[in-house]
Amino acid sequence: MANTSLIGLTLPVQGTLSGSWGNTVNNAISQIVDVAVAGTQTITVDTDINLAVTVGSDASTGLTANSSQYAVLLCTGARTALRFINTPKQSKIYVVINDTTGGFSVTVRGGPTSPTTGVTVPAGGRAIIAWDGGLATPDFVNVGGGSAAGSNTQLQFNSAGAFGASANLTWDGSNVQVGAQGDVRFADTDSSNYIALHAPSVVAANVTFTLPGTDGTSGQVMTTNGSGALSFATVSSPAQASGALIVNTTTVGVNYTVPTGSNAFSVGPITISSGYAITVSSGQRWVVL
């Protein structure tokens, strides 16, 4: 008698098994079909394991604990490292459930010789995987999207019909970070163009800007207190020219610097508001009349 190539069903020769078909049909056909459609194989060992197509006409030589025919691979118990489940390199669909403890993934791959990359299912994850013989290098691929992509804190996105992730887009539960000088983009009505914000190429230290809680008035500008707190303020012009007159205000409400190579004068008295300063560069002069 021969067996089918994928799940090892017995193929009785025509005219055989007269009066003795029970073990062969029950254990080498019916039982294998049963587990291939709806059977769960529970894997508890904290080691790599090899699954194989098992064949036989009685219970002792039929399905075993490491049969590859089962539909569901349920991984339970403690794991102390990433573990590999090697299966035959042939067409098969598996539902993989990683209910192990210890925080380690399991990888189902074609093997055990010259193993393929396979599909890695993180602790607590689920996946539906299938053998893709159409790839340049045939392998198991995730076709059900049951497991998250990437690693901890990475946000998920649709990548060719499956979960994708990038280390440049993360969320730690409170903060979203766009890495590698990526943009935060605000698109127009038809999304044909956008306004983008991104960080400079080099940031010496973390900087957090806190936006003001209310809008300012027309003509005001946004200023900082030097510690990241932004607010709206009215621009205080130091001097205005009108005809033959130069008029300056007597209250300083913004920070000024007299740069190198320049001097300044004001008509006093002058009051510098709290929190602001006038800085005179070395060698320069600020004259108050």
Structure description:
The chain is mostly beta strands. The protein folds into four domains: 2-147, no CATH class; 152-204, no CATH class; 208-236, no CATH class; 238-288, no CATH class. It is built from one helix and 26 strands. The strands form ten sheets. A five-stranded mixed beta sheet has the order 3-5-7-10-11, with no helix packed on it. It has a four-stranded mixed beta sheet with strand order 4-6-8-9, with no helix packed on it. A hairpin with an 8-residue loop joins strand 8 (106-110) and strand 9 (119-121). The mean pLDDT is 86.
Write the layout of secondary structure elements.
Elements (H helix, E strand, L loop, with lengths): L1 E2 L6 E2 L10 H17 L1 E4 L5 E2 L21 E4 L7 E5 L5 E6 L7 E5 L8 E3 L4 E7 L6 E4 L11 E6 L2 E10 L4 E3 L5 E4 L6 E4 L23 E4 L5 E4 L6 E3 L2 E3 L3 E2 L3 E3 L5 E3 L4 E2 L5 E3 L5 E3 L1
Parallel strand pairs: 3-5, 4-6, 5-7, 6-8, 21-24, 22-25, 23-26
Antiparallel strand pairs: 1-2, 7-10, 8-9, 10-11, 12-13, 13-14, 15-16, 17-18, 19-20
Output the keywords.
about 290 residues, 26 strands, 1 helix, mainly beta
Average pLDDT score: 86
End-to-end Cα distance: 114 Å
Q: What is the total domain count?
A: 4
Order of helices and strands: EEHEEEEEEEEEEEEEEEEEEEEEEEE
Estimated structural class: mainly beta
Shape: rod-shaped
Number of helices: 1
- Strand order of the main beta sheet, please? 3-5-7-10-11
Please summarize what this structure is.
6% of the residues lie in helices and 35% in strands. It has one helix at 22-38, and strands spanning 2-3, 10-11, 40-43, 49-50, 72-75, 83-87, 93-98, 106-110, 119-121, 126-132, 139-142, 154-159, 162-171, 176-178, 184-187, 194-197, 221-224, 230-233, 240-242, 245-247, 251-252, 256-258, 264-266, 271-272, 278-280, 286-288. A 5-stranded mixed sheet has the order 3-5-7-10-11, with no helix packed on it. Strands 4-6-8-9 form a 4-stranded mixed sheet, with no helix packed on it.
